[in-house]
Amino acid sequence: MEETPQHCLSRLPDNSALKQQELPAHRLYFTARRVLFVFFTTGIFCLCMGIILILSARSTQEIEINYTRICANCAKLRENASNFDKECTCSIPFYLSGKMMGNVYMYYKLYGFYQNLYRYVRSRSNRQLVGKDVKAVEDCAPFKMSENKTPIVPCGAIANSMFNDTIILSHNINSSVQIKVPMLKSGLTWWTDKYVKFQNPSSKNLADEFRGTTKPPNWPKPIYDLDKKDPRNNGFLNDDFIVWMRAAAFPTFKKLYGRLNRTHHFIEGLPAGNYSFNITYNFPVTRFQGEKSVVLSTLTWCGGNSLFLGLAYTVTGAITWLASFAMMAIHITLKNKQMSFFHQ
C-alpha cells in the first residue's frame, strides 16, 4: 500500500465537524397555517399603521401662498441679469382662519427646479465645505474661479444658485398695528450636516480665513457675512446654506426657511387673524417656467401633511390581505381535492 506524500497531507482540511461539513443543520418547515398567520398579521399591522399615519398627516395645518404671479413686477425685473443690484419687494396679505397651535415652520417651495441633475449635484467641493482647504475648487466647474482667477468660496453650481429671497411674516393686529412674527434661523438642519459635513476653518476671524477668495457670482455678499445678527450662523455653518446644499430628489420641493419663536403673542402658536408676507424678491424662476411659494405648516410625530407613507402602508396591507385570502383559497381547494382522492 502506497503512503500519501507528506506535502499532500498538509493540504487536507482538519478533521473537525466544521471543516468536514458535519455540523448539525436545521431545515425550516412552514406549514400553511403558519404562513397564513404571518401574512394576516403583517396585513393587519400595515393597515393599522397606514390609517394612523393618514389621520396624523391630515391633522396638520398648512397654508401655501404662491407668489410668482403676485410679485409679477419683481419677477419681470429679475429676468434681466443686469438688474441684480436693484431691490424689489412685494407684500402679500392673507387671512389665517384658524389658530395654528404648537410649533409652526416656514418653508419656501420651488416648482420646476431640478436639483438632481448629475453635473449640478457633483459641482461642489467637500474638502472646502468641511474647512480643510477653502481654495480647493477642482470639482466645482463651471464656478471654480472668477474672471481674475480668484477661487470662489463656496464654489460650485449648487452654492451659486442658492435661494436668496428674504421672507418676513407680519401679524396685522388692526389697521394701524403690525407686529413682526419672530422666526428663528437656527436649528433648521440635520445634525450630521451641521456637525459633520460642514465645518468652518479653524480661525476665529472668518474674514481673515477667507482672504484671497471671492463670493459666487449670484451672491450679494460673501460667505462670512451671511448673518450679521448671529456671528455663529456664518460661513459654511449658515443654516440656510446647509439646507440649500442638500439636493432635492424631485423638481418640486420645499426647504425649511425658519421656525416660529414662541414668545410674547405667539407662545401657543400663530393666532388666527390677518397676516402678510413681505418678500424681497431676488431668486428668478420665470426664466425656466418655475414657480415659488411660501408655506406655513405644523408638524406631527410622523412629519408633515404628506400622505405618501400612510398610503404606502395601507396599500401594502391591502395587497398582503388579498394575497392571504388567495393563498387560503388555494390551500383549501388543494386540501379538499386531496381528501376526495383518499376517499376514492
TrEMBL record:
GO biological process, one term: phospholipid translocation
Species this protein is from: Papio anubis
Name of the protein: Cell cycle control protein
Cellular component, GO annotation: endoplasmic reticulum; Golgi apparatus; plasma membrane
InterPro entries in UniProt: CDC50/LEM3_fam
Membrane-spanning residues: 35-57, 307-334
Taxonomic classification: Eukaryota, Metazoa, Chordata, Craniata, Vertebrata
Family, as annotated: Belongs to the CDC50/LEM3 family.
Keywords recorded for this protein, A-Z: Glycoprotein, Membrane, Transmembrane, Transmembrane helix
